[in-house]
Every structure is written in C-alpha cells, then in structure tokens.
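Support reply, case 0932

Customer input (verbatim):
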Amino acid sequence: MQAKKRTRRILDAGCGTGLCAGFLRPYAKELIGVDVSVKMLEISKKKGGHDYLARTDLSEIVTYPEGKFDMIICADVLVYFGAVNTVLRNFASILNPGGWLLLTVEFENDPAVTSGFKLYPSGRHKHTDDYMLKTLAKAGFPKPKMLKHARLRNELGAPIFGTLIAVQKPALVFG
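Our regenerated output:
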C-alpha cells in the first residue's frame, strides 16, 4: 500500500468539534479548521487535530484565513444555510486552480420545493441536486466529478440521507 502524501493545504470549513481532522491529517501539510462557534473551536483545540483554528463566518470572506487552499472540506455544514451561493463563491475564490471542494448537504427530493432548499423543524435545510449543481456552476465550478446520495448519519435512530459532492476547480480556463 502506497503511503499517503502530506502535500495539501486543507480547509476544514465548519470544523465543529474536529470530527474530520483525523481523516484529513494524513493528506495535509497544513490543516486549518474554521467554525463560527467558539465553543466548537475550543473542543476541537483540545483534540489537537488541526494546525490552526479560527472563528470564521463562511458567508463573510473577510473572516477567512489568508491564502489559498488545495482542498476544502465542508461536511454537514451547509445544512445551516438556505441559499449557499455566497459560501460557494467564497470557496471558489480561495481554492487553488485544480483544487478540490468536497461537501455534503441533506437531500431534498420534494418536487414542490421550487427554491432549491427548504428549512425543516430540525433547524436544518435540505437542498435539491438541481439547486446545488446550478449554484456550483454560478460560483465557477464545473460539473462535479461525483454526486452521490448516501446515508450521512443517524438522528434519533433514523437515517439522514444526503448528497455528497466532489468538484474540482478548473486548473486552466480558456477565455
């Protein structure tokens, strides 16, 4: 088995308590975790998985750490946003050419949801695939390399289904 290469500058966007850090660490030369919640960042800091942690509002680019990233992971975070256009534009602006954006959203499959997303009593939004594809395209991303439906987690004993998306920022743009 080939050893993993720690070559990427990775942003764990909405890192929460640091659940993804252990999975990301083998690939990261620098792993930066950001979250809007100071309490979550404190828990993540105690776990010690990130090189750097910062309080960041994903919808406000001025709060992001400086520099570009080779990979952005945004797992179980966009459920707290209805419209995700600003967040995806922000991600596109800090992602290196050829870099990867990996994200999850809860899957909305109700055809009556015409806005592309809907807020549920859980306090979380679900997003349609069509909305996510159109919003990614408007942010400058091409068609995702992967769009897959899967069980994201269990909540109160019931499965929560979502969409996993992996999209690569174009390395070359021809005008």
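We compared this against your earlier run and they match. Two observations from our side: Helices lie at 21-24, 38-47, 85-94, 129-138. The radius of gyration is 16 Å. Please reopen the case if you see a mismatch on your end.
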